[in-house]
Amino acid sequence: MMNANIKIAVNNLNFYYGDFHALKNINLTIAKNKVTAFIGPSGCGKSSLLRTFNRMFELYPNQRATGEINLDGENLLTTHTDVALLRAKVGMVFQKPTPFPMSIYDNIAFGIRLFEKLPKAELNDRVEWALTKAALWNEVKDKLRQSGDSLSGGQQQRLCIARAIAVKPDVLLLDEPCSALDPISTMKIEELITELKQDYTLAMVTHNMQQAARCSDYTAFMYLGELVEFGETKQIFNEPKVPRTADYILGKMG
To answer: Is 191's pLDDT higher than 60?
Structure first.
């Protein structure tokens, strides 16, 4: 990848839970307007890595990261980084849908109000835009004042995606976004991921090998806190260079 095509560059990243060394000397690049999937067995560090990209780990005690994570050439791990703005720029969607305990409309408007003072008409337009972008507008446009909790699981996850993109981020982090969803809802989210990369850079953690193969452009295989192999998804799945990668993809290890 040429430098102009790199959104995030990770250099010598190490991450710790207290004294436990969870991520060990990670080096990789995340391509702009592409989907990068992170695969590997439970506990290998996939989600921990994702949480370093917007410093979400700082919400918990005794967690720290060293090294560099350069977003558009700026190291986001430095002390002068505005973390609130960083988390707007690098949005995150979690494994289980997490709608706020408020209306569908306010779920989307909440973040916008934090960062922008928009006239009511513009705010309404932005809410509609975000819900449309997340392929949810036609399903909720007549019930915007209903609670976000009233939606189905798949709709709630798309609501969370709409909430993340409403503040116009550059990057979307998806931490197993379909693991709690039925096959139909999963298909809708996968279709949405493919569409969203036209406007955003996406990094996704998944345990579903088929999903990684279908949705991603690049794949990183992690094991015991180390990056074992990283490359284009077709190469990783069809011609892995490391035997351990092949064993995992073929189900010989977990």
So the answer is: yes
